[in-house]
User: Which sequence fits this backbone?
């Protein structure tokens, strides 16, 4: 190789290193700083909450507003049944997972936009992904809260899943990742069940409630259905800052407030 | 809860999707047998290395540009760029400052973007555009009209990047971003142009006893659990679940003719293939 062809390097600890080398990677372990340690990430389920309309959504938003003085909240929203519909049409047309992810993200954007409209007079703003990156800290200093699209901006770059074609990173994963990257105080997922059960309580009356469990243990138990995306469990195992999530029933008034106050409501899944 | 959609659903699978849990493995399995559409079956995704090509400047980049231009009439190409030494610097600095992996991804993306923009200045006179992820719906048009487009290689995960298993470096970087472009479009080829002749048993820059591997299955490569690799580990893991891309090829972008040979379907460099691709029918 000629001298003129040698790479021009910027001096750094990782200079000339292979970032794929296991020893180099292990050498980068170091403490992470929480960017917004007072933040609480609240996720509103699509199918479980939003699709029920006024009756389910408005009391919940009232509760978010009632907690505004005590707790900094950002609200992620799921897509619900419209994503299921476009999955059905898209799968029938032969679309790959990345295309399905791009399409479904518009359904959750619709829901997030509606929630932002309903919270607007309480000072909440709607932030798309690029604005979460650039503006969230500033917005929280100026505004009183923010609403974002729960589905992460993976779009065409969504991973093909191990089984089937449904995008593995939905609004649970997206909301959790916002909590993790900002070092949030809590990540609360609002659903229409009281938390985690050994089987689906909607179809099986013998289902047993699980109040607290480790993510690795839950993965090992291989439950046939979960109230959250399985991807979140894998993310929790590798958590640096957001080391737990709480699943609570968002249809029961007071549950969100109790979760925000750190009370043991619903199910806690931890690292 | 009333369900206004269920009865209007197109298919039996659609009815199950409307009401079932998406985490239910039997429902996920039911989506396996749906058809697979290859969106751009004639496109080739070519990744231009950051540290391996771009950081070397004119002597490495210009001959490769000439080779790309010579191939424009024959092969349609999505050219993705790597990041390189400036990313290593900003990762070091950001880790020292306690930044989380999502912030490192935002920072690394800017470096891949710089390289893509430089590449576009060099190819601009041939009418080649640089598209950001938001511009991807226009990509087929540019490919049909001009034969190639440039994009930055990082996937657009930004703050939503997942933590790595070990350490603090974003695990899904430009090798992964380019692979996923190839996978979602059902591309003809995924070619990585770097500064080695492909895969070796160890880093040939550091170990003179390293042996070249011309062809290996991803299953075998993962089983060997090598300390260092020619490609991000995330690519190997995604190969196992990919439906469209069954092999990826690594060529030496510093050796004139290697990229052309790979585009023409010759087995230069190293090919990593999936021995158990679960493809199904392509429509």
Assistant:
């Amino acid at each position: 190789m000629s001298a003129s062809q040698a790479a021009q390097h910027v001096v750094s600890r990782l200079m000339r290193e292979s970032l794929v080398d296991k020893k180099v990677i292990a050498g980068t372990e170091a403490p992470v700083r929480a960017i917004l340690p007072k933040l609480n990430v609240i996720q509103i389920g699509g199918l479980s909450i939003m699709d029920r309309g006024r009756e389910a959504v408005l009391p919940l938003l009232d509760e978010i507003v009632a907690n505004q003085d005590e707790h900094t909240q950002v609200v992620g929203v799921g897509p619900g049944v419209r994503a299921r519909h476009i999955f059905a049409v898209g799968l029938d047309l032969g679309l790959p997972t990345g295309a399905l992810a791009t399409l479904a993200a518009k359904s959750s954007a619709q829901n997030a936009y509606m929630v932002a409209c309903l919270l607007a007079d309480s000072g909440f703003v709607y932030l798309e992904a690029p604005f979460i990156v650039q503006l969230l800290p500033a917005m929280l200093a100026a505004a009183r809260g923010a609403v974002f699209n729960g589905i992460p901006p993976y779009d065409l770059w969504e991973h093909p899943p191990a089984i089937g074609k449904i995008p593995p990173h939905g609004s649970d994963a997206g909301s959790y990742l916002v909590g993790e990257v900002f070092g949030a105080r809590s990540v609360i997922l609002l659903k229409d069940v009281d938390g985690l059960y050994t089987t689906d309580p909607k179809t099986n009356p013998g289902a047993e409630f699980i109040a607290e469990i480790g993510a690795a243990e839950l993965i090992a138990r291989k439950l046939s259905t979960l109230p959250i995306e399985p991807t979140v469990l894998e993310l929790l195992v590798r958590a640096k800052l957001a080391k737990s999530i709480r699943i609570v029933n968002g249809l029961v008034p007071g549950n969100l407030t109790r979760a925000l106050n750190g009370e043991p409501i619903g199910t806690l899944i931890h690292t | 809860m009333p369900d206004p959609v269920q009865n209007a659903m197109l298919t039996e699978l659609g009815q199950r999707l409307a009401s079932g849990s998406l985490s239910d493995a039997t429902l996920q399995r039911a989506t396996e047998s749906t058809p697979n559409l290859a969106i751009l079956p004639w496109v080739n995704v070519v990744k231009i290395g950051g540290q391996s090509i771009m950081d070397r400047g004119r002597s490495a980049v210009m001959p490769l540009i000439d080779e790309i231009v010579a191939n424009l009439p024959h092969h349609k190409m999505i050219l993705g760029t790597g990041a390189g030494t400036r990313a290593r610097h900003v990762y070091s600095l950001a880790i020292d400052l306690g930044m989380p992996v999502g912030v490192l991804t935002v920072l690394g993306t800017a470096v891949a973007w710089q390289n893509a923009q430089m590449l576009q200045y060099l190819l601009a006179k041939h009418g080649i555009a640089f598209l950001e992820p938001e511009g991807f719906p226009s990509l087929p048009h540019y490919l049909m009209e001009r034969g190639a487009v440039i994009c930055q290689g990082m996937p657009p995960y930004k703050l939503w990047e997942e933590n790595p298993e070990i350490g603090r470096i974003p695990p899904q970087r430009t090798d992964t971003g380019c692979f996923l472009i190839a996978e979602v479009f059902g591309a003809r080829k995924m070619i990585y142009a770097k500064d080695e002749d492909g895969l070796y048993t160890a880093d040939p820059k550091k170990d003179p006893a390293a042996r070249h591997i011309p062809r290996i299955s991803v299953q075998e490569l993962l089983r060997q659990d090598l300390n260092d690799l020619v490609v991000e580990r995330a690519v190997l893991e995604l190969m196992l679940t990919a439906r469209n891309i069954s092999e990826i090829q690594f060529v030496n972008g510093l050796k004139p003719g290697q990229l052309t040979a790979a585009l023409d379907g010759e087995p230069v460099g190293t090919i990593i293939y999936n021995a158990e691709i679960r493809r199904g029918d392509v429509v």
Observations:
- The CA atoms of residues 59 and 254 of chain B lie 9 Å apart.
- Chain B has one domain: 38-273.
- The domain at 38-273 of chain B is CATH 3.40.1160.10 (Carbamate kinase).
